[in-house]
Amino acid sequence: PDACGSHMDITPTLVELCAPAGFRYHSLGRDVLAPCDNPVAFGADFAVGPDFVADLEGEPRWEAFPDSPSPRIPPDTSALRRRYRDLKGISWWRAVRGAEMPPEGGAKRQP
Length: 111
Prior knowledge:
With 111 residues, the chain is α+β, with helices and mostly antiparallel strands. The protein is 27% helix and 14% strand. The radius of gyration is 17 Å and the shape is flat.
């Protein structure tokens, strides 16, 4: 009941269930069945936590779920927005550039 995740969490969850102990892999997601102090899942301009949903487009805002068991401290929507944009940026880079790392000092814009 405390698990939350998105499409990027499917692979690490399945790897952790099926792979031998100590198996190494890389992922932007996480095992949704593993304990996590602050689980959050991302969708298109939204973040979902165990007891909130946040709209990250425009001026970030959030709402607590009606059945939340305790009063919720507002999530840091600025941090959620940064993390969401970081994930999108890394995903774009991997899709366009693959494993190639940007040059020292950052990527150069293509004309």
